[in-house]
Structure formats: structure tokens, C-alpha cells
Amino acid sequence: MAPGPGCTSQTTMLSGGGGVGCVDNSTSNESAMEDQNGDTVGNLIHNIGKPPRDHSVMRHCTSSSWLIEPESDIMIVGLKTTSEEKSEFSPKLRSGSCSEKGPKQYMEDEFICVDILREHTGPSVNLPSPAAFYGVFDGHGGIDAASFTRKNILKFIIEDSHFPSGIKKAVNSAFVKADHAFRDASSLDSSSGTTALIAIVLGRDMLIGNAGDSRAVLGKRGRAIELSKDHKPNCTSERLRIEKLGGVIYDGYLNGQLSVARALGDWHIKGSKGSKSPLSSEPELEEIVLTEEDEFLIMGCDGLWDVMSSQCAVTMVRRELMQHNDPTECAKALVAEAIQRNTCDNLTVVVVCFSLDPPPKIEIPRAHRRRSISAEGLDLLKGVLNGR
Fold first, then answer.
1. Which domain CATH number covers 335?
2. pLDDT score of 281 more than 50
3. How many whole angstroms separate alpha carbon 206 and alpha carbon 62?
4. Which of 116, 149, 150, 275 is deepest in the core (most CB within 10 A)?
5. d(Cα 214, Cα 374) in Å, to the nearest integer?
6. Exposure of 135 in the CB half-sphere (CA atoms within 13 A)
7. What is the pLDDT of residue 163?
8. CB 193 within 8 A of CB 266
9. Region Disordered: start and end of each range (predicted)?
10. What pLDDT score does 52 carry?
11. Given this model, what pLDDT does residue 15 score?
């Protein structure tokens, strides 16, 4: 594929290659971006966003808004009541993306943004409005698996007999079909592999499907809500599954070879089709109903999350949207920030907004100050009151 970066706000497919090696400079100066945004709620009560996986290269994000009064004291300008929200809210979708090779020698990431899904299904398929599809594919061992998955995964979903009414079954089946079809593509290197993270929006329903360690994070009035789980071999549920199927984990690597527990491709590890492999291509699914509080979705490969927490990314995107309301610029900003924080991987970010308007300003009331008096001061006050 052609070398170099690419940032788009349209329906896009992109990849690149070429570059220099990575140097871990985790002790360098602090990042230029600090989450000091008074207009952002941040992590008010629940620290929902997980910490990054590689603490050696983490630059801490701090926000003065995290120190405010409980969430019930916050007034959001223009926010409707719960009953109005349930009856009236309809997502207005727009997306932006950015993909950079970063410090790696080759680009192995792919992504896809389809804001209008009807253009890919035809009039015969009864789709709600809006309907959209987004995906991030983080390749390893070459670009073949990521490129093949990006080109074919949506087709397998749409062609499934359960689509769109049984969307979960359609997505689960499509992941497995794409994996097997890649194995049968004789012109491609079946030993290459890829993670696969997809999001499908059908009306107010959004389904996240994930296999691997890319991550989808929902921005909900400034709070980070993780909608996918990182499939690392050391994760308890994945480790139990791997060991049950005869796999082993060496120093965090599946069979000493792979740093993820789920992926498409990697048929040198999976063996023959039909055999039970500790490396799974089946996605974990998460379905939510979007509300007016749900402002945007961030989808990114692990090159982003290795150096940035989910909450830090949400805080940054919300602040950017309030400044220019451009999801493409938000994706660029996250990529640039991750590079400045010395990520050692390719970087791909997709930002999906659920409204045409920027996030509303959050009014934070002045905190009530509690004053105290020392023992000496109290004794002096008593003396004054007693006329001493």
C-alpha cells in the first residue's frame, strides 16, 4: 500500500506503509495535552474508563473538573428531560477518521466509515434511519488480513440471512465467514492476522463487535463508557478459554507468539479449518440504545490506548468538538497526541458523532467551601465573646 498518513471525513478506506523504527522514550517531557477543561465533566463519580495497558509510556491526564461536587449538582444547558429524550431523540450521524503509520516501519492498519449504509444494501433491504457502519482493523504479520477484512466484512454481514432483524447473529457469523474466506484466498498470506472492531448503527440501536485489542469508547456527557473488552491472553476469561482448548500463555503471549487472544487470520496458529483453536475469531458483542446523553464514539487501535486512557480520550474529543465541531480534527488530535506520547505502533482513530451540534456546555456550580478554625483561634474567639 502507499506510504504516508491519511485523514478523511467521508466514507473512507485507507492504509499505508514505509518509515522508521520505534524508540521508546517514555521518560521524555510531559505531553502537551493536559485534561484541564472546565467545560468537561471528566470522571465525576465512576472511573469507568480503564487505565492504559502500557504504563511505562503513559502521560497522566488531570482535570480540575474531576474535583467538583456530585453529578446531581451539574446543570447541562439545553438538556431535555428523560421523557422528552426517549420520545424525540434521533441520532444524526457524521464521522471523521485519521490513520498514521507512526514510528513503525510499515502500515498494517485499515479502517472503514460508511455514514449511509443504505448505499451499500440497496432498496430491497428494510433499514431504519439512520443506518451506518464503521470498522477498525489492526493488522499484524503483514497487511493482507486487515485489508481483506476491511473489504469483505460488511458484505458478509449484509448478505447474512439474519440481517438486519437478527443483527447479532449476522455479525457473529460474518466474523467467522470472513476468517474462513481469508484462509481460502490462495493469493494472500494466511499467516498474517488482524483484530476487528466494528460498530453498526440502526436507528437508535448501536451494536459493537470486537475481536482483539482495539477499543470502542462512548462519550456520554463527558464520561468514558467502554463498549468493548481488550482481548489479551492474560485476561482471566480469555486465559481460561485458551487453556481449556490446549493453548498456553508465555509472558503474556498466546502460545508465545501473539499478544491478542482473538483475531482473524493467523492460520499458522489456528491450524486447519473446523478445528478448535485457542485463538478465536468470534467477536464479543455489546448492544446499546442511544440517548441524547450519548455524544460520540471513539474507535481506535491499541496504538492509541497504549498511551492514553479512555477517559483522557473522551475529555480531549469533547473539548475539541466544543471548539470546532469537526470529528476529523478530533481524530487527528488524538493521533497527534499519541505520537507525542511516544506510542510504538500504527495509529488509527475513527470518531463518530451522534448529533450535528457540538456537545452542550456543562455548567459547574461553584463548590461550597467548608471553613474551619484552629483550637487557638477558637480559644481567642471565646475570649472576645466573654469580654476578656
1. 3.60.40.10
2. yes
3. 30
4. 149
5. 54
6. 34
7. 96
8. yes
9. 1-38
10. 47
11. 37
| For the chain, percent of residues with pLDDT exceeding 90 | 67
- Binned at pLDDT 50, 70 and 90, residue 68 comes out as very low
Q: What are phi and psi of 137, to 5 degrees?
A: -130, 115
The interaxial angle of helices 167-184 and 144-159, nearest 10 deg, is 140
Specify if 309 maps to a domain.
Answer: yes
What is the number of domains present in the chain? 1
DSSP 6-66: EEESSS-B------------TTSPPPS-----TT---SSS---SPPPS-GGG------GGG
Lowest mean pLDDT among 8-17, 211-220, 243-252, 300-309: 8-17
Asked if residue 176 is part of any domain, the answer here is yes
What is the mean pLDDT of the segment spanning 211-236?
Answer: 96
CA distance 292 to 290: 7
C-alpha cell, 252: 503474556
- Among residues 3, 27, 33, the alpha carbon closest in space to that of 15 is found at 3
If phi over 0 gives left and psi between -120 and 50 gives alpha, with beta otherwise, what is residue 266? left
- Mean of the pLDDT values across residues 205-225? 97
Rg of the chain over CA atoms, in angstroms? 24
For residue 166, tell me if it sits in a domain: yes
Range(s) of the domain holding residue 279: 6-385
Predicted confidence at residue 26, as pLDDT, reads: 37
Tell me if 1 is assigned to some domain: no
Q: CA 268 to CA 7: how far, in whole Å?
A: 34
Query: Is the Cβ–Cβ distance between 264 and 281 less than 8 Å?
Result: yes
**Identity at 164, one-letter amino acid code:** P
